[in-house]
């Protein structure tokens, strides 16, 4: 295949010689590079190296975590789609399905809090609406550094504005979340966004591309040089220098996303779509590789057709760009005109950028030459999987409670009420539109949020929970507790807990003690999910949350979803009347 | 009674208000796309909340210039009732049907919460079912709801009873001049308001204070 | 032809953003900063045969869309170098 | 001393507002308008002994607060007439 490459006329990015430095800049280890060469049967060119680097990044490949994720319980009669798709899907009766997922946008939010958080919200909503669901609720789990740290204020303000700026504009209520402050997040904040959508069980859309010759279609916004290397950035430890590097930040455009949502819903009402996937991290690359790989086909792309916002973009840049508000679809052949009409009416770009082949390879053309030709299997399933060494977390020392008796209870209570951990979050959640769509039965301020299934008496209960301090002290118990807390919060509204998503935020997995936290938290989570019949249907892993060698506390955020059949039976958390009994349950 | 809801790209309370209108009128409202130049005959036209055109440039500015607004202005001149809620209020000031302008909230934050409102004028077709001076609870959700106009205009509005709704003095969420939450034109048929009556029109959603606006409208216009 | 339109709040119109910036600057330790006002800048490229034609067009854009003349002033600058 | 700070998006950074304004102008019948970009204008009055001192202070304000230097450029103009 290599011989087909057009002879080189002018300096082309692919003419650059691949040196060990270039390999390292792409975040690839020397042995990983050797594997790439073996898979290719030759030296990759720059474009191919770029594609491998993003597909094999921790963010896309889950290379350190896959082994452990496989152990989580993922099935149950309520599960329609477990992990592996854009989002998980559960059955909520009467032909209705809840579609949900949680995802991190930690590093981008540290660099540019407003846009980082905004694009995090935009990305997770696309994951949900690509499945055919209409997003009905957003949640977020935020972790910031010490309130007195000089950066914290700026980061909190930016992140909260960004979440609101995106969610409020698109018109999906933000119904809850959690916020903690701890110095371990000083240099590494966590911004985890969750989205829940509703679909009909017979109208779920998947990413697997089938049908040799079927057109591959690009829709949404134009491609710019946004966030190139974002995916690799999300997988590399931070140091002070990378803040200076200032990668081109992705800017969110919620207005366009709203149009994209409506246009997709309109096209989804027909049967023209074979497969659809959002262009998230590693944009065009990961979406085309994943779609083709899942369907067991090949794909050929013509980058000259890709709508671009900037001039002279190289193929490398187009493949790696993380411009927002874009989707890739495979349509039934011949259905392009009707799809195009819909997207144009909504003022969005639409372009046929390729087609499916039977080669099992991804072939990319640009400006009259073939710039990449690579086997799909090693890009996706064939990515490295590591069984990283780990050390168990030593038992935390007992807290010395001997002086507790000297404390005046009232003073202690006042201190507690005033501490940043417990203080009211109203100032945050009032900046989010929690009521739009007219189905929010219980918004922020309670245990779990309650969102009515539009037009029915049913409601979804949603909660995000984790207590990183517990996970640090005893990861197994902390993992269990996070799941149990989500379960309790959902139960407390009167709903039956059904399934969870998660966002596993940890430090550098190449350090055995961090890996130990990861392994043990997952063990606890898995055990709790098993015991409670509360399976995991989607999730996300964010590793390397470290700055200058200081890792964050293990923070496996859980997003739980439950169902209440009759919303008349829902209960709030207020003591609503005098002269009522108060019971304490449990032990 | 026939209602129409104008849908701009980026409107996001169009469905919510349509549900309230249908409940009050017993008929589905027409949903009219902003790009249309044809507006079916309607007794009331609603400009819904949301972020038309992403709220870019100035809230409501681009929507005010869309083709359908020419029709809305014509119909208003011919006596149709027009209700602008939130972003719809911003559109009404931008297109000149109502005076003044909605600026960025004084605290520079988006604010979504219940507010206590005082009905200052119950003689408009929108407020007939409220008592004069009654305090009601209706939520707001906006980033630019800080009503501003020069003193002359404000005096005129006060003097003519055109301040229809105001925030309770200790509950002004955005810094609006004279606690203004909603104003009407001199005919009383065009009302712009920042709070969202459609979000409080059902007991399950916390209360029904907003519902009377829609049922009252039906009573007044039929 | 490239042009820049400056849109500023009229005198006497409250400017919450300007006020907030002024306060923040004070908190950051910058003293002696007053009368902070925030406006908008719109840059565009317009096909026009003459500067006069360009200016006329842009004035119309300002009146119709770019500025809210109830509260804002605008000022058009053509970049004749291009 | 009066000063004006122009804050514009860096080249290549997506400008959703500019894009929307451009489209809207097209719909209003203005043709041949391209590359619309929206920026901010900040006007202020600063106590400073020399123009250099003023410029230095304002530069610091831009870096710290006024501009988001990750995605924005700034340009300072002093109005020496005052
Ligand atoms: N980032 C956030 N976004 C939206 N709502 C939030 C956020 N953080 C906290 N909340 C809401 O504030 C309330 C209190 O939060 P928290 O103290 O974390 O709850 P709890 O400890 O009871 O789980 C909850 O209802 C929660 O949904």
Automatic annotation (TrEMBL), chain B:
Enzymatic reactions: N(2)-formyl-N(1)-(5-phospho-beta-D-ribosyl)glycinamide + L-glutamine + ATP + H2O = 2-formamido-N(1)-(5-O-phospho-beta-D-ribosyl)acetamidine + L-glutamate + ADP + phosphate + H(+); L-glutamine + H2O = L-glutamate + NH4(+)
Pfam families linked = GATase_5
Which SUPFAM superfamilies is this protein grouped with?
Class I glutamine amidotransferase-like
Pathway entry: Purine metabolism; IMP biosynthesis via de novo pathway; 5-amino-1-(5-phospho-D-ribosyl)imidazole from N(2)-formyl-N(1)-(5-phospho-D-ribosyl)glycinamide: step 1/2
So where's the catalytic machinery, residue-wise?
Answer: 86 (nucleophile), 196, 198
Tell me, in one coarse class, where this protein mainly resides.
Answer: cytoplasm
Q: Where are the transmembrane segments?
A: none
- Alphabetically list the UniProt keywords: ATP-binding, Cytoplasm, Glutamine amidotransferase, Hydrolase, Ligase, Nucleotide-binding, Purine biosynthesis
Q: Which InterPro entries match?
A: Class_I_gatase-like, PRibForGlyAmidine_synth_PurQ
EC assignment: the record states 6.3.5.3, 3.5.1.2
What compartments host this protein?
Answer: Cytoplasm
Tell me the GO molecular function terms: ATP binding; glutaminase activity; phosphoribosylformylglycinamidine synthase activity
Which Gene Ontology BP annotations are present? Answer: 'de novo' IMP biosynthetic process
Q: What does this protein do?
A: Part of the phosphoribosylformylglycinamidine synthase complex involved in the purines biosynthetic pathway. Catalyzes the ATP-dependent conversion of formylglycinamide ribonucleotide (FGAR) and glutamine to yield formylglycinamidine ribonucleotide (FGAM) and glutamate. The FGAM synthase complex is composed of three subunits. PurQ produces an ammonia molecule by converting glutamine to glutamate. PurL transfers the ammonia molecule to FGAR to form FGAM in an ATP-dependent manner.
Q: How does it assemble?
A: Part of the FGAM synthase complex composed of 1 PurL, 1 PurQ and 2 PurS subunits.
User: What is the name listed in the Swiss-Prot or TrEMBL entry for this protein?
Assistant: Phosphoribosylformylglycinamidine synthase subunit PurQ
Task: Tell me what organism the protein belongs to.
Answer: Candidatus Micropelagius thuwalensis
From TrEMBL, chains C, D:
For molecular function, the Gene Ontology terms on record are: ATP binding; phosphoribosylformylglycinamidine synthase activity
Q: Where is the signal peptide?
A: none
Kindly list the places in or outside the cell where this protein is found, as annotated in its UniProt entry. Answer: Cytoplasm
Kindly list the biological process annotations in GO that this record carries: 'de novo' IMP biosynthetic process
Which catalysed reactions does the entry list for this protein?
N(2)-formyl-N(1)-(5-phospho-beta-D-ribosyl)glycinamide + L-glutamine + ATP + H2O = 2-formamido-N(1)-(5-O-phospho-beta-D-ribosyl)acetamidine + L-glutamate + ADP + phosphate + H(+)
* ATP-binding recorded as keyword: yes
Task: Write down any Gene Ontology CC term.
Answer: cytoplasm
Q: Which family does it belong to?
A: Belongs to the PurS family.
**Functional note:** Part of the phosphoribosylformylglycinamidine synthase complex involved in the purines biosynthetic pathway. Catalyzes the ATP-dependent conversion of formylglycinamide ribonucleotide (FGAR) and glutamine to yield formylglycinamidine ribonucleotide (FGAM) and glutamate. The FGAM synthase complex is composed of three subunits. PurQ produces an ammonia molecule by converting glutamine to glutamate. PurL transfers the ammonia molecule to FGAR to form FGAM in an ATP-dependent manner.
Instruction: Indicate what this protein is called per its UniProt record.
Output: Phosphoribosylformylglycinamidine synthase subunit PurS
Q: What is the lineage of its organism?
A: Bacteria, Pseudomonadati, Pseudomonadota, Alphaproteobacteria, PS1 clade
């Amino acid at each position: 295949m290599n011989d087909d490459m057009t002879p080189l006329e002018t300096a082309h990015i692919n003419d650059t010689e691949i040196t060990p430095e270039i390999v390292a800049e792409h975040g690839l280890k020397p042995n990983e590079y050797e594997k790439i060469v073996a898979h290719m049967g030759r030296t990759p060119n720059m474009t191919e190296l770029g594609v491998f680097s993003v597909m094999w990044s921790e963010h896309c490949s889950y290379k350190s975590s896959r082994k452990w994720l496989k152990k989580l319980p993922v099935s149950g009669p309520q599960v329609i789609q477990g992990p592996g798709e854009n989002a998980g899907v559960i059955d909520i009766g009467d032909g209705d399905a809840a579609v949900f997922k949680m995802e991190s946008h930690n590093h981008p939010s540290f660099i540019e809090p407003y846009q980082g958080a905004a694009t995090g919200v935009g990305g997770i909503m696309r994951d949900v609406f690509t499945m055919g669901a209409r997003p009905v609720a957003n949640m977020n789990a935020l972790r910031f550094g010490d309130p007195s740290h000089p950066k914290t204020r700026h980061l909190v303000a930016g992140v909260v504005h960004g979440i609101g700026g995106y969610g409020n504009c698109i018109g999906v209520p933000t119904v809850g979340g959690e916020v903690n402050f701890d110095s371990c997040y000083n240099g590494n904040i966590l911004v985890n966004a969750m989205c829940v959508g509703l679909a009909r069980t017979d109208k779920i859309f998947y990413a697997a591309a089938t049908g040799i010759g079927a057109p591959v279609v690009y829709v949404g916004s134009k491609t710019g040089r946004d966030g190139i290397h974002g995916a690799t950035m999300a997988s590399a430890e931070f140091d002070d220098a990378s803040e200076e590097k200032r990668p081109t930040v992705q800017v969110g455009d919620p207005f366009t996303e709203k149009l994209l949502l409506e246009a997709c819903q309109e096209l989804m009402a027909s049967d023209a779509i074979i497969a659809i996937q959002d262009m998230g991290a590693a944009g065009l690359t990961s979406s085309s590789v994943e779609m083709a790989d899942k369907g067991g086909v090949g794909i050929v792309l013509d980058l000259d057709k890709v709508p671009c916002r900037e001039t002279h973009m190289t193929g490398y840049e187009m493949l790696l760009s993380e411009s927002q508000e874009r989707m890739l679809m495979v349509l039934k052949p011949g259905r392009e005109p009707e799809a195009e009409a819909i997207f144009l009416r909504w003022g969005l770009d639409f372009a046929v950028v390729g087609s499916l082949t039977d080669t099992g390879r991804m072939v990319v053309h640009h400006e009259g030459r073939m710039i990449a030709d690579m086997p799909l299997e090693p890009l996706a399933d064939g990515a490295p999987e590591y069984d990283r060494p780990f050390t168990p977390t030593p038992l935390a020392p007992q807290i010395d409670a001997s002086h507790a008796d000297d404390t005046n209870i009232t003073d202690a209570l006042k201190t507690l009420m005033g501490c940043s951990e417990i203080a009211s979050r109203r100032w945050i959640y009032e900046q989010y539109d929690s009521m739009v769509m007219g189905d929010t039965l219980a918004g922020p301020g309670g245990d779990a949020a309650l969102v009515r299934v539009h037009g029915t008496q049913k409601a979804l209960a949603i909660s995000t929970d984790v207590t990183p301090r517990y996970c640090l002290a005893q990861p197994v118990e902390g993992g269990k507790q996070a799941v149990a807390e989500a379960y309790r919060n959902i139960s407390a509204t009167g709903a039956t807990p059904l399934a969870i998503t998660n966002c596993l935020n940890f430090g550098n997995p190449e350090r055995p003690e961090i890996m130990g936290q990861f392994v043990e938290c997952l063990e606890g989570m898995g055990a709790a999910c098993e015991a409670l019949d509360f399976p995991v249907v989607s999730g996300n892993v964010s590793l390397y949350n470290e700055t200058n060698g200081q890792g964050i506390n293990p923070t496996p955020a859980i997003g739980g979803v439950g169902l209440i059949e009759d919303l008349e039976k829902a209960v709030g958390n207020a003591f609503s009347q005098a002269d009522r009994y108060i019971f304490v349950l449990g032990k | 009674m026939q209602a129409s809801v104008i849908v701009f790209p980026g409107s996001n309370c169009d469905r919510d208000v349509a549900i309230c209108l249908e409940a009050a009128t017993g008929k589905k409202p027409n949903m009219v796309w902003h790009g249309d130049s044809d507006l079916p005959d309607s007794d009331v036209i609603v400009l819904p909340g949301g972020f038309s055109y992403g709220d870019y440039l100035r809230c409501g500015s681009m929507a005010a210039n869309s083709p359908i607004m020419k029709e809305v202005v014509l119909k208003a001149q011919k006596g149709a009732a027009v209700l602008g809620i939130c972003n719809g209020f911003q559109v009404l000031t931008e297109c000149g049907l109502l005076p003044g302008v909605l600026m960025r909230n004084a605290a520079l934050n988006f604010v979504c919460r219940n507010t206590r409102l005082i009905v200052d004028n119950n003689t408009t077709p929108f407020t007939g079912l409220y008592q004069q001076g009654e305090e009601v609870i209706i939520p707001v959700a906006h980033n630019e709801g800080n009503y501003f106009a020069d003193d002359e205009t404000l005096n005129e509005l006060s003097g003519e009873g055109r301040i229809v709704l105001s925030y309770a003095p200790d509950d002004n969420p955005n810094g609006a001049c004279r606690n203004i939450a909603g104003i009407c034109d001199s005919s009383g048929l065009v009302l712009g308001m920042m709070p969202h009556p459609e979000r409080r029109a059902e007991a399950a959603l916390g209360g029904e204070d907003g519902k009377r606006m829609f049922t009252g409208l039906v009573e007044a216009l039929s | 032809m490239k042009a820049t339109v400056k849109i500023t709040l009229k005198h006497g119109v409250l400017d919450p953003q300007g006020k907030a910036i002024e306060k923040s600057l004070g908190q950051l330790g910058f003293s002696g900063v007053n009368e902070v006002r925030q406006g908008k800048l719109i840059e565009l490229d317009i096909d026009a045969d003459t500067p006069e034609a360009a200016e006329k067009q842009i004035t119309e854009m300002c009146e119709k869309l770019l500025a809210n003349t109830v509260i804002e002033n605008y000022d058009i600058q053509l970049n004749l170098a291009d």
